[in-house]
Write a structure and sequence with these properties.
Structural class: mainly beta
Order of helices and strands: EEEHEEEEEEEHEHHH
Oligomer: single chain
Radius of gyration: 26 Å
Number of strands: 11
Strand content: over 45%
Number of helices: 5
Length: 272
């Protein structure tokens, strides 16, 4: 029986060779960063709560955005420097008294990372009719695009580790101009003008990232046939609640945790 992939029957004989324009990963790297004592920034009301807090506990951590800047490395042709600016939204339980329930507040912190990867070299100028710009005379002109490779960052939400209250050691420490879209995620402008000695929160998180340099190239690939879907779309909205429940796969793994052998194998893979 012929092999089937995504509804396409592969009989071992392709029909034609087709030239496609696709993104090729020229270089990539993965990293595991333990980010310690990142200074956090809060809204005025939350900062006032921090000023009178006895302790804090880090509850949640998520990545808001990553700003990426790619520049060629002058002394090493074909290599590019990827400057990555991470913005995190952290959630804290703030304890102001030993006998009261904690208050939940959110804060923002940042982290900068630089990675040098190989992205190949190209001297051509790229033009495309899909990106148009309008000149002063009202005519549409084709816009020139950069020939730098595209940097793609894959990141999962950080692992919240710990947090503590401490005094600001350097009022300019980790202070940057937070973009408007980042501030909107927390609800307004954060306090960044604190002085040395004022209380603040230092958080530690674990971060896993994969960074790739991708460049569009023309590649010749074998084509077997058009992929025609073999199944019909189902409208689950018409199902009764119990009918939809019966279609859910039984959660066997939740009732029977993986054996220690599987865990050890996973740990060895992580270490490699």
């Amino acid at each position: 029986m012929a092999e089937t992939t995504n509804g396409c029957q592969l009989d071992g004989n392709f029909k034609e060779a087709v030239c496609i324009d696709a993104g090729r990963v020229y270089d990539s790297c993965c990293d595991r960063d333990c980010l310690e004592d990142l200074r956090c920034f809060f809204l005025p009301d939350a900062q006032a709560l921090i000023n009178s807090a006895l302790s804090v506990k880090l509850r949640t951590a998520e990545v808001l955005n990553v700003y990426i800047d790619v520049e060629p490395v002058n002394f090493n042709k074909g290599f590019f420097s990827c400057d990555l600016n991470f913005f995190f939204l952290l959630g804290f339980d703030v304890y102001t008294s030993p006998t009261t329930c904690p208050c939940f507040v959110k804060g923002i912190t940042t982290y900068s990372k630089k990675v040098i990867l190989y992205g190949s070299d190209g001297n051509v100028k790229l033009f495309s009719n899909t990106e148009d710009s309008v000149c002063k005379n009202g005519k549409n002109n084709t816009r020139q695009s950069s020939n730098n490779p595209k940097c793609v960052v894959q990141v999962v939400d950080p692992v919240p580790l710990t947090a503590r209250i401490g005094e600001i050691r350097d009022c300019y420490e980790n202070v940057c101009c937070l973009p408007r879209d980042i501030c909107d995620c927390i609800g307004g402008e954060v306090v960044t003008d604190s002085q040395n000695g004022n209380p603040t929160v230092y958080a530690s998180i674990g971060l896993f990232t994969i960074v790739q340099l991708i460049r569009n190239v023309q590649m010749l690939v074998p084509v077997y046939d058009f992929c025609i879907p073999e199944k019909t779309c189902c409208d689950s909205a018409t199902d009764q609640p119990c009918d939809a429940f019966r279609k859910i796969k039984f959660p066997t793994d939740d009732f029977f945790p993986p054996r220690s052998l599987n865990c050890e194998c996973k740990e060895e893979c992580d270490q490699d």
